[in-house]
Inverse folding.
């Protein structure tokens, strides 16, 4: 298994491909069947019982009992679109959190930064948890080691008796073809007649692999050590649910064996994959003889992660108009013609908090204006800002330039999504965030939420609502 440092270029390429197909599932909801018939691949056996070539096949059958429900355990699941249930007809009931009666707080096309900053808001002030699952793909480009640790530590500090499970389940995306330096899925696409097709046809994976040999494939674990480090952190003391690494003596068989766990995008769980994950979680809980516990500690730190995107109900003071710009989609709109567009911020802590603004973005075409954001700590400064133009504010080092376009999005997959950009530090007490658009565009600048957190993770957070 090669190290991360040796594959940076390929890593960047495959992440770009992964983004494209995440968007494909979100907006087209295309495919819900596994890549090929599970019967054929799951019957493949080798003599190594612990090998991936047998582990999957020996554990697919559904566990009839639900240990979580039977023991009245309170469970919450964090994660990406895999945990959310992308590709399922009924994500709430068919994804593994639904199969376990778990609260599902997964966010599509996300990394661990958002829940690490918004743990208090997402869990709830008074909720008690016995089981917590955390699923962020090992190859996540945006996710950081610090945010995975932050999330685990905040949860452990609050819930000392909870079982915290980190999912480390590799995907076929992590295989690369040596001769072409491209990922498995792209290799299959390049070797398949895709005329008039959006998803891969039945048998495409098998046919593409027949054109290669075992020596043509290599596997990269990417950031899997982040999950192991988090689970072993003494301030977390978690458990890792792992799919054993593929047997690289026969990588093609390993690919075919794990393929039924995934849809044809080779990234999101199939129904079989969700059942497999549910069963492995139950295995862990049974081995621990997990029982309900009401013991909690006071939250060490709080946060305010507010969204009015789907409710139209804003808890912040503002002079901007709330518009339902699409059915059940709401935004506070900032106009170039208004001298002042502001949000009122209340930091209830005794220390500064880090502010991110959630707003609408599009790609590859730009339908929203750019904006300049600045934080003011009193009404006098706020009133003075009325006389300042976009370019005046942009010159100030304390201001933040907000871009609203994903320029690199493929034309065939246009997106209209929520973005989260870092603005700056908010002092304790009352402050104001002003927004100055740079021009008139198809739509006005639309804010849909704010994040006030005790810790920041970069200039941008990936979490598509």
């Amino acid at each position: 298994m090669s190290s991360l440092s040796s594959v940076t270029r390929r890593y960047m390429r495959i992440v770009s491909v992964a983004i494209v197909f995440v968007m494909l599932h979100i907006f087209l909801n295309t495919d819900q069947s596994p890549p090929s018939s599970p019967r054929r691949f799951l019957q493949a056996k080798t003599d190594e019982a612990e090998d991936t070539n047998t582990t999957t096949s020996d554990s697919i059958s559904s566990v009839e009992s639900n240990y979580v429900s039977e023991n009245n355990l309170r469970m919450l699941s964090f994660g990406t679109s895999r945990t959310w249930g992308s590709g399922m007809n009924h994500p709430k009931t068919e994804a593994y959190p639904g199969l376990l009666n778990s609260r599902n707080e997964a966010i599509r096309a996300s990394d661990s930064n958002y829940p690490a900053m918004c743990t208090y808001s997402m869990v709830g002030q008074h909720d008690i948890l016995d089981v917590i699952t955390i699923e962020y793909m090992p190859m996540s480009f945006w996710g950081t080691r610090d945010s995975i640790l932050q999330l685990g530590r905040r949860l452990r500090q609050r819930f000392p008796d909870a079982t915290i499970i980190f999912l480390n389940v590799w995907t076929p995306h992590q295989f690369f073809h040596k001769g072409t330096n491209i990922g498995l899925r792209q290799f299959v696409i390049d070797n398949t007649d895709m005329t008039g097709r959006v998803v891969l046809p039945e048998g495409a994976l098998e046919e593409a692999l027949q054109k290669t040999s075992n020596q043509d494939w290599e596997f990269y674990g990417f950031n899997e050590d982040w999950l192991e480090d988090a689970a072993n952190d003494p301030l977390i003391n978690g458990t890792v649910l792992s799919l054993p690494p593929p047997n690289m003596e026969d990588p093609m068989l390993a690919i075919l064996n794990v393929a039924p766990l995934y849809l044809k995008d080779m990234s999101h769980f199939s129904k079989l994959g969700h059942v497999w994950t549910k069963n492995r979680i139950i295995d862990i809980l049974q081995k621990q003889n997990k029982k309900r516990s009401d013991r909690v500690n006071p939250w060490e730190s709080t946060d305010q992660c507010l969204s009015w995107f789907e409710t139209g109900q804003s808890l912040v003071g503002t002079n901007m108009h709330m518009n339902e710009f699409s059915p059940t989609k709401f935004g506070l709109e900032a106009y170039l013609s208004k001298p002042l567009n502001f949000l009122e911020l209340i930091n209830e802590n005794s220390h500064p908090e880090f502010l991110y603004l959630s707003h609408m973005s599009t790609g590859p075409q730009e339908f929203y204006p750019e904006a300049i954001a600045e934080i003011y700590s009193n009404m006098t400064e706020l009133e003075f800002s009325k006389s300042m133009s976009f370019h005046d504010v942009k010159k100030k080092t304390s201001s933040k330039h907000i871009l609203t376009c994903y320029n690199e999005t493929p034309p065939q997959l246009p997106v209209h999504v929520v973005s989260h950009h870092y603005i700056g530090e908010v002092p304790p007490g009352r402050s104001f965030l002003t927004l100055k658009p740079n021009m008139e565009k198809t739509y006005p600048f639309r804010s849909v939420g704010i994040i006030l957190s005790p810790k920041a993770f970069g200039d941008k957070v990936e979490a598509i609502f």
About this structure: The two ends are 35 Å apart (CA to CA).
